[in-house]
Specification:
Elements (H helix, E strand, L loop, with lengths): L5 E4 L3 H12 L5 E3 L9 E3 L12 E4 L6 H9 L7 E5 L6 H14 L2 E5 L7 H12 L3 E9 L25 H4 L2 H10 L5 E7 L11 E7 L4 E7 L6 E8 L5 E4 L4 E4 L2 E4 L4 H12 L11 E2 H11 L2
Parallel strand pairs: 1-2, 1-4, 2-3, 4-5, 5-6, 7-10
Antiparallel strand pairs: 6-15, 7-11, 8-9, 9-10, 11-12, 12-13, 13-14
Helix pairs in contact: 2-3, 3-8
Length: about 300
């Protein structure tokens, strides 16, 4: 593990989480940021400081609208990383996401998008449930919402990228995890889609605070609601089946209910980040197919395009 050299671009809340997890995995990361702290890492103010290093991996966790530019910055190194993980979503625009894909293909770099919820143990059960009940599922309801003012309690919400559309903010992009796992569970061959996206609260932001997406899969529909408004926060998926063998998973309480049976899962969202990193770094290959591919990340942006 100590021989793996990882460059991290972007050191906000998610960048700090990735950095801590890398250190716990025995890796001292190179972090490109204007705001270094006392973490046991190598902080860089300019990427040229490591121009002679053989960087194996790169994690891009900067503001969404900067992902494309930071990818180009990373690939300007003489020894280009062979593996890149881009924090979700892939980019803020579908056109920029396509450019990322084209660049990755041109340079032959394996590139993934960091949708970590896939790595929750609950999804092993949920995926098996979908397989068993695929002919009886009729309604899938997905909700993820939280008051933006309480999302990052130690930071003024108006200064976060979430508040600014031009930086890639907006609840549709911020909580695109929900769109990712729906496409992962059911595929992208839906018949039709309906989108509602708006700013309806008194939050001092210029990005959408409410997003609704309905996907028509012919024999069932998926109804997704994302918002920056509700409190207490909610996050769940519910599957309603015609034979009454229903499923409900609450991401906050980590409780999974199928029919009359209720199970409290033993892992959590924080652990899912570390699982994702392990697989990205080739520590554990058995779940490699869980990593969100660049094409899957692009499909999400395509859905979000107006």
């Amino acid at each position: 593990m100590k021989t793996k050299k990882v460059l991290l671009i972007g050191y906000g809340s998610i960048g700090k989480r990735h950095s801590r997890n890398l250190i716990e995995l025995g890796i001292k990361p190179y972090i490109l940021t204007k705001y270094p702290d006392d973490l046991n890492a190598v902080f860089l103010s300019d990427i040229n400081e490591i121009k002679n290093e053989n960087i194996n991996y790169c994690i891009i966790s900067s503001t969404t609208a900067r992902h494309l530019d930071d990818l180009k910055k990373c690939l300007a190194l003489a020894n280009k990383p062979k593996h890149i993980l881009i924090e979700k979503p892939l980019e803020s625009l579908y056109s920029s996401g396509k450019e990322i894909r084209n660049i990755a293909e041109e340079f032959g770099i394996s590139t993934f998008v960091a949708y970590n919820l896939r790595f929750l143990e609950a999804f092993k059960i949920i995926r098996n449930f979908v397989k068993e009940q695929k002919n009886t599922i009729r309604i899938v309801e997905v909700v993820a919402g939280q008051d933006l003012k309480e999302w990052r309690p130690f930071k003024d919400y108006t200064e976060s990228y979430s508040a600014h559309r031009e930086q890639g903010g907006g609840v549709d992009l911020d909580l695109s995890h929900e769109i990712d796992y729906i496409l992962w569970l059911f595929g992208s061959n839906f018949k039709d889609k309906i989108i509602y996206r708006n700013k309806i609260s008194n939050l001092k932001i210029n990005s959408p605070d409410i997003f609704k997406l309905i996907l028509d899969y012919n024999t069932f529909i998926v109804d997704i609601t994302l918002d920056y408004i509700r409190k207490p926060k909610e996050r769940y998926i519910k599957m309603i089946c015609e034979n009454n063998e229903n499923l409900y998973f609450n991401f906050i309480t980590n409780t999974l209910k199928m029919g009359e049976k209720t199970v409290v899962m033993t892992d959590n969202v924080e652990q899912s980040y570390k699982k994702m990193l392990k697989i990205f770094l080739d520590i554990d290959k058995k779940n490699e197919n869980k990593l969100c591919s660049i094409e899957e990340g692009l499909n999400i942006l395509k859905i979000l395009e107006v």
